[in-house]
Structures are given as C-alpha cells and as structure tokens.
What we know:
CATH superfamily: NAD(P)-binding Rossmann-like Domain
Shape: globular
Number of helices: 10
Distance between the termini: 56 Å
CATH architecture: 3-Layer(aba) Sandwich
Number of domains: 1
Largest sheet: 7 strands, parallel
Strand content: 5-15%
Order of helices and strands: EHEHEHEHEHEHHHEHH
CATH class: Alpha Beta
Radius of gyration: 18 Å
Structural class: alpha/beta
CATH topology: Rossmann fold
Strand order of the largest sheet: 3-2-1-4-5-6-7
Amino acid sequence: xxxxxxxxxxxxxxxxxxxxxxxxxxxxxxxxxxxxxxxxxxxxxxxxxxxxxxxxxxxxxxxxxxxxxxxxxxxxxxxxxxxxxxxxxxxxxxxxxxxxxxxxxxxxxxxxxxxxxxxxxxxxxxxxxxxxxxxxxxxxxxxxxxxxxxxxxxxxxxxxxxxxxxxxxxxxxxxxxxxxxxxxxxxxxxxxxxxxxxxxxxxxxxxxxxxxxxxxxxxxxxxxxxxxxxxxxxxxxxxxxxxxxxxxxxxxxxxxxxx
Length: 259
C-alpha cells in the first residue's frame, strides 16, 4: 500500500513543486486548493507520469469549516494521510492602518488557524501509527517583525514557533515536523500581496523548484527548520546579533516600493 501525502495550496508555486517531488517518489496524493481546474490538470499529469493516485479536494482554507471537511472527505474515501504538507498561505502589503481588515482575518485563518487545525486532525493518528511527517511552510519573515506586512510576518512567526514546539513533543515517536522558511520566491505570492515592485522582490528571488527541493530534503531527513539559500540563512540569523527594533527597520526598508 502506497503512502499518501496531503498538500494544501498545491495548484501552483512551492506547493505544486512539492506535490511533484512526492509523486516522483511514489506517494499517492491529495491535492487541496481553491482552483479546481488547476488541481485537476495537475492530478492528471502526476498520475499519468508517475503512476500514483491523485485525489482532488477543492476547498478554500479561509473558510473555517474547510479543514474538517477535508478530513471528512478523506475518511469517507478511506484515505489515511502519512505526510501532511501545510503550504497554503498568502500575504498582504501596506500600512496596517490602511489595509483591508477582512483580508487580514482571512490570512490568519489560512496561515495560522487552518494550518493548526489540519495538523490537529492528522498528527495524532501519525503518532498512533508511529510514523508520519509534517511540513509546514513558514518564511524568513518568521525571524523578525515585518512593517508593511505586519500580520503576514506575525502569522509566519507563529508557524515557525508552533512547528518547532510540536517537533519536540513528537520527538522519538517516529513522526517528524519540519518548518520550511523560504525568502522571496518566484510564485504568485507577490502579485496577490501587491508587492511585486517592492525592493525585496526586485532584488532577486529563488525559484519554487529549488525551494521545494530544499524543503523536501528536510522533510525526508526529519530536519526541524529548513532555510533555503545562503542569503536567506544569513537573514534568518540577523535577529541574533541586532536589536529587534533595528531588524524591524531593516525589514521595512527591504519592503518599501522601488521609487
């Protein structure tokens, strides 16, 4: 019986690349995202190329009921989950006093609440079996405050802290938890967050395939935190040597729009 991986936000970007890597190694897939057309096309392509089963679950994780509905769907189809990849997430750019409140509440729901809920739903059965892996996609944003993306940075700080904490809790059970912390990456993230012309994205990005490969290696090796790219690794350590106020100012400058 093949192992099965659930990948959220799998219709594009890092999620799509992670799903491809999992299929290449023989994992059956459950692909979850909002875009049915993209999911169906990806499921068919991966099934044809790698001979794996690929189930599509169309859900918007900004809806509070979505995680439980995903779990219910999989129970009805008798599909256990061996690998959980919480990749879905988005950001919003702008001064907190001016940004849209509902968008930020949706962001918290997707980036924090749904990720936590899905982990709550699937992690216990992994520990009961004594085997399983969880990959939570955080960000280099997790390591410092982020003016102009205050809520997004805060959500990713949560993801990193949460992942490291439960990784310690399940240590020795046969289950591992990994946090992937990429920097700016060539996905549609910057377009949705309205920050494509920010200095951060104008000064260079990593490609999603490279990021996914780094995260996948970390997942398979049971590494707790993965930061792809030497520049991102350096950035992730800045908070250790400079005051947080200084780090926040530096983050703000990096995210300001190019003039």
